[in-house]
Structure formats: C-alpha cells, structure tokens
Write a structure and sequence with these properties.
The complex is a heterotrimer of chains A (120), B (93) and C (178). Chain A is an all-alpha fold and 120 residues long. Chain A is 79% helix and 0% strand. The longest helix of chain C has 24 residues, at 17-40. The chains are: A mainly alpha (120), B mainly alpha (93), C mainly alpha (178). At the A-B interface, helix 1, helix 2 and helix 3 of A face helix 1, helix 2 and helix 3 of B.
C-alpha cells in the first residue's frame, strides 16, 4: 500500500521538478518580456502543482498508514491543498497585473506577423 | 527523492536570479522576483517534508500570501507612480 | 465601468439585498471557521472558542464595512467540479506544448496579440475567465476593454484555442447567471 503512494508521489515530484526547470530555462531563453511571462506560467502551474501534489501523496500515505484515525497527516494534506489553491489564484493575478503595468508604461511586445490585426 | 525536487527548485531559482540580473526592463526583474517567490514557497514546503517537520507548511502558506501582496504593491507603484486611492485609477482607464 | 454596473445591480436588487447579504455572510463564516480549524490543529474548547470569537469579529467588521458580497464568498455550488477537471486537462496539454517549444533549440514561437470576447455577465465570471486564460500557458490576459480581453499569445495554436471561444462558453456556464 505504501509503495503505491510512494511511486505516485515520486512520479509527481520528478515531473514537477522537470517542468519547474523548463520554466526557468524558458524565462532565461525567451526573447522579450511578454513571452517570458509564459515561461513563468509553466513553473507556476504544472511545476508548482505537481510538486505540491507529490507532497500531498506523501501526506496521504502518512494518513492511511497511521494506526487508527490521526488528525496530523490529514491536516498537512489540507494545508498543502490550501497552498496550491492560493498559488493558483494569486499567480495569474500577479501575472496579469505585471503585463498590464508593462503595457501601461508603454513597453511594446515584439510580434512576429499580423501586426495588431483586429481579429473579429 | 525530496532532494531531487529541492535541487530542481534551487536550479529554477538560480535561473530566475539570472533573469533578474540580466534585466533588461524593470518588469523582467519583477517577473523574476515573482517566480523566485513562488519557488521559495515550494522550497519551504519540500524542506518541511525533508526534515519531517510539517510546521514548515504554515511558513509556506504565509510566504505565498506575503509574496502576492508584495507583488501587487510593487506593480501598483510601478503602474501609477504612487500608492494613492482609486482616483488616478479611473483617469488611467 | 465595472463600478457603475455593480452599482446598478445593487440598486436593482435592493429588496432581496438583505437576504443575499446574509447568505454571503453565512458562507464567509463557514469558510473562516473551516480555515481556523485547519490551521490551528489544537482542538481544545478554549482554542476553538477563540476561533469562533475571531470569526464573529471578522463577520461583524465585514457587515459594518459593507463588503459582504460575492467577492468575499463566491457561491458557485458544485459547478466548479465540472469546470476544474477540464481546466486542468487544458493546462496540462498547453504546458507540454510550451515546454517542448522552449526546449527546441530554434524555439518555434509566434507571439501575437489577439482580442477575445468575454460573454460573462458578472465581474466574478470575467475574473475567472481572465485568470483561466492566464493560467493556461501560452496565453496571458493583458487588458480588458468593453467586454473584450486583450490576450498575448505565444503561439498561433494557443491563440486559435482562445479564439474558438470554448473556454468562454464553459466559464459562462460556470457563472450560471443568465
């Protein structure tokens, strides 16, 4: 039983770490500010999400394996869910605030083609 | 296994710092700072599991909220130039 | 713009304003109490009593400041449980696509600015829609003008995905006003 949770949590942790590093590479490699926002987006969603889900599996393992009903591991699980929730609510908000502040200050995005085409 | 996650998070933080050092605009630096902040939250959570001290999660939660508030404060300042009430906001829209 | 529309709505619903306010206060109270129980981890009568008193003080303050509205306690029922799995699937697919592009040496990106319609009625629905766009890697909502969201897209595929209006329809269904 425990090994199942371990495998799930390790898979999540490793893939989450991978996406976090890819987002970090993206933030360094991408050419201009607005595209770098997307690199930050990768680490904030799948990177952070999978790492936290991996930790949740560890907490759930502690909860399932403990003799009888112990509150401790389940509280840890609840706190991890809250951290994930806050990250998923606040990170796009600050990302949007950052983009709109940059646009207000007149930072123009580098567009590849179809300049300012009013689609629809 | 937690050590791998920690190493990856530290590498990401280093890359974010590199972007903060390179610039070139102030917004790139704020973006890097934001990313550094969310990675700190993850790092604290993973350290909590690595050292088997779940109390660290409370710190992670607090840091997540503080990071958000700080980010919005910096951006309000950079957008409007001051921490005023809603009057200049309507003018800008 | 948003201010005036919400003012208008408030004047319109002046009659059932009181019951609506009570509903939001109740929901906020339940959430606050739940968060207290989750955070504290000490379940003695004294500590739980402190929690109840703190929550009551917060509720009284929100009543006095007139901020007990949908902003502080969104009541969406069970509809998020339909929307969230779909959003998670979208985020995962978009993540894999963007990660591939970032790791390819020549970086096949195609940044562009597009405008998409936001057909949601309330402010909450629009916030959820704009946040969902930003949360999906490859698209970031930059600005909001007259029911349209200005989106910066990293690739043409991500831009087409948003132009198709699929997410817009789903968020409107999630909002459930109409």
């Amino acid at each position: 039983m425990g090994i199942l949770f371990d495998i799930l949590s390790w898979t999540c942790l490793v893939t989450g770490s991978f996406f976090a590093v890819v987002g970090g590479i993206g933030i360094v490699r991408l050419p201009d500010f607005y595209t770098r926002l997307h690199g930050g987006g990768i680490t904030d969603t799948l990177g952070a999400g999978l790492v936290l889900v991996g930790l949740m599996f560890q907490a759930a393992k502690g909860g399932v394996l403990s003799a009888g009903f112990e509150a401790g591991p389940w509280l840890v699980l609840g706190k991890l869910v809250m951290i994930l929730f806050f990250l998923l609510v606040t990170s796009p908000t600050s990302c949007h605030a950052l983009a709109s502040a940059a646009l207000t200050n007149g930072l123009q995005p580098e567009l590849s083609e179809k300049k300012d085409e009013p689609s629809r | 296994m937690f050590a791998i996650a920690m190493a990856a998070i530290l590498v990401t933080m280093a890359l974010a710092l590199a972007r903060a050092r390179l610039g070139p605009t102030v917004f790139d630096r704020i973006l890097a700072l934001n990313m550094f902040g969310t990675k700190t939250v993850l790092l604290i959570a993973v350290i909590g599991f690595l050292t088997e001290r779940p109390d660290f999660l409370d710190l992670a939660l607090l840091y997540a909220l503080m990071n958000f508030i700080g980010m919005v404060a910096v951006l309000r300042f950079s957008k409007y130039g001051h921490f005023a009430d809603t009057e200049p906001e309507k003018k800008a829209e | 713009m948003n201010q005036t529309s919400s003012d208008h709505r408030m004047a319109q619903n002046a009659s059932d304003d009181r019951t609506g306010r009570a509903r939001y206060s109740l929901a906020l109270g339940v959430v606050l109490l739940g968060i207290w129980l989750l955070w504290s981890g000490h379940y003695t009568p004294l500590v739980i009593g402190f929690g109840v008193v703190s929550c009551a003080i917060v509720l009284i303050l929100t009543r006095r400041m007139n901020i007990a509205d949908e902003e502080c306690a969104p009541l969406l029922g069970l509809r998020p449980f339909v929307y969230l799995p779909w959003l998670i699937k979208e985020i995962t697919l978009a993540n894999i696509d963007i990660a591939k592009r970032v790791l390819t040496p020549e970086m096949p990106i195609n940044p562009q600015m597009i405008r998409v319609r936001a057909s949601q009625k309330g402010d909450l629905g629009r916030v959820i829609y704009a946040n969902s766009i930003t949360l999906t890697p490859g698209t970031v909502s930059v600005d909001m003008q007259d029911g349209e969201i200005v989106v910066h897209a990293l690739t043409s595929e991500a831009a087409d995905e948003d132009k198709s209006g699929d997410m817009d329809r789903r968020v409107t269904a999630l909002e459930g006003l109409s």
